[in-house]
Amino acid sequence: MNRQSKGDRTRADILALAMEASTIHGLHSLTIGKLSSVLGMSRSGLLSHFGTKEELQLAVVEYARKGFVEDVFESTDSKEHGLERLASLFQNWMKIVAVKGREGGCFFIKAFHETSSEDGRLHKRLSEIGSEFESVFEREARLAVRLGELRQDAKPEVLTFYLAATVEGIQLRKNLFNEPTLNEFGMERILTILRFYATTTGKSVLANLQVEKD
Length: 214
Known about the structure:
This protein is mostly helical and 214 residues long. It has helices at 2-25, 32-39, 43-50, 53-73, 83-98, 107-115, 121-146, 156-177, 183-197, 200-207. The protein is 73% helix and 0% strand. The radius of gyration is 19 Å and the shape is elongated.
């Protein structure tokens, strides 16, 4: 039991370091040799946890997905479904990119761009996760329309595309120009898009949203 617990901790440490490195340098930069050197492990010891580079990459993706779900989705459980939760979802995502001090920003923005033109298991899994994330965003946008918080002509898939593109653009700006604090700027862009589609009821919901200062 203790050996298993130690093994789980070691695996988590490997995945945390690998995710951090991948967010900055990309998933394809990961190598068994580099990680074993940084962690002070033998190559065989690291391979015993994952077997191959591809298995390591896939494990990192699952580890990152778990963190994203916790940080972005589950932390909005106290919010009302609809526009309040939709805005909070993107606020949480923006924090990962612009506030948390996580160098490189969001793992998935980097990974989606890096593997978008590829085939294989890694691309397939990332595509599935991207669709999963989109469905959560679109569900709340669709519900906000039904609740009368967004205009009837608001198309959930278009609206959430604009919002996601804004978050991705903030990450690009942060990394390209080395701007460390963009949360307030990014959230103002998010709110501008939401206000454009919001009804009077929806604008009241947005007025109560607290945006963290940089």
